[in-house]
Amino acid sequence: MRVLIADEQRLLRDGIRPFLGKMGAKVEVIDADSLATAHLVADQQIFDLAVLGHTMPGMDGVGGIRTFGAKYPSTKMVLLTATADSATVLAAVDAGAHGVISKEMSGCGVKHALHLVMSGECYLPASAIVALASSNSRLQSESFSSACALRNVHFSPAETEVIPLLLDGLPNKLIAQRLDIDEAAVKARLRSTYKKVGATNRAQAVWSLLSVGKARSD
Question: What is the C-alpha to C-alpha distance for residues 159 and 166, in angstroms, rounded to an integer?
Fold first, then answer.
């Protein structure tokens, strides 16, 4: 099995490498420090698994998951993040991730999570699953009516700038950098977007916006 670990922090890569090597009898682990380097390495050889750092250069939130998956569809992808909140998890899975692991997990926990991914399962942090279950219980029962209602919602130009970045899983700081505005302006745009889609938090907003997108495509 060939595994790619890509993250900007060498210390983290070196810390995870021994546990990746224990995933099977013959495991080759290659590392990279940016998405561009990960692409260069993946162009040279086929990887069974790619662990991609959320904030490494080139990732743009979970956008890197989408581009990597489109180029290397046979590789299972896992997002490695320090912010494994439910909104990030939703965005990562929608982008094509086969799992999301937290940088706070133990090495044994990482090995267990990646074993699940390689066996065909999807691994998500327990805390994110609990948060999604509680927030989605109401949204699931109203998904059709919410999607219909959202078809008539009109977003301002400022809101339409921030929505794609929200769905790509970018944190407020990176959204501010991409739009060349301050974080206070980002928060203001997000608050108005949440209000229009009937959401009280980031995860609910992502869920609602993804639901209406699927309804429109159907």
Answer: 10
